[in-house]
Amino acid sequence: MRLCLVVGVLMVGGMGLASRADEPKKADKAVSYKTDVAPLLKDACASCHSGAKKKARLDVTDYDSLMKFVKAGEPDKSKLHMSLLGKGAKQMPPKNPLAADQVAVIRAWIAGGAKKD
Ligand code: HEC
Q1: Ligand 1 touching residue 114 (CB < 6 A)
Q2: Comparing C-alpha atoms, which of 106, 48, 39 is closest to residue 74?
C-alpha cells in the first residue's frame, strides 16, 4: 500500500517534468521580435503604450522599455505575458483580450530568451 503511494507520486512527478521539458521546444520555433512580436504589440497596444500615451510608463515600440516588463526565459514571471492572461497583472488590452495564438507568440518569444532579432 505504502509502496503504491510512493510509486504513484514518482509517476506523477515524472510526468510533470516531462511536459514542462516539452514546452520550451515548442516555444523555440523561431519567433522573431521584429517580424512577430513588435508588429503584434504595435497593433494591439500602441494606442495606449507609445508616444505621448505611455500607460504604466510602457512603450511597446521600444525594446528597452518593453524589457522592463519581461523576464527573459520566464514568461510566467513576465508582466508583459501575464497581463495578456490577466493573471498577476492587469488584463491587457483592458477590453479586447488577445487571441490564444497571439498570446502564444509572446509567450514563445519570452521563453526563447526575448531576443531583439
Ligand atoms: C485602452 C488602453 C490600453 C491598451 C490598448 C493596452 N493597455 Fe496596457 N495599460 C493601460 C493602462 C491604463 C495601464 C495602467 C493600469 C494601472 O496601473 O491601473 C496599463 C498597464 C499595463 C501593464 C502594467 C500592468 C501591471 O499590472 O503592472 C502592462 C504590462 C501592459 N499594460 C501591457 C499591455 C500590452 C502588452 C498591451 C497590448 C496587448 C496593452 N497593455 C494594451 C492601458 C492599455
Answers
A1: no
A2: 106
Nearest to residue 76, comparing CAs of 24, 18, 15? Answer: 24
Q: What is the largest CA-CA distance in the chain?
A: 66
Please calculate the CA angle 89-92-97 and round it to the nearest 5 degrees: 125
| Domain regions of the chain by residue span | 1-28, 31-111
C-beta 69 within 6 A of ligand 1: yes
Three-state DSSP at 55 gives: helix
Total-model pTM = 0.81
Judged on CB neighbours under 10 Å (0-12, 13-18, 19+), 1 is: exposed
User: Running DSSP on this structure, what letter comes out for residue 53?
Assistant: E
63-115 residue pLDDT tens: 999 999 999 999 999 999 999 999 999 999 999 999 999 999 999 999 999 99
Ligand 1 centre distance from Cα of residue 30 (Å) = 26
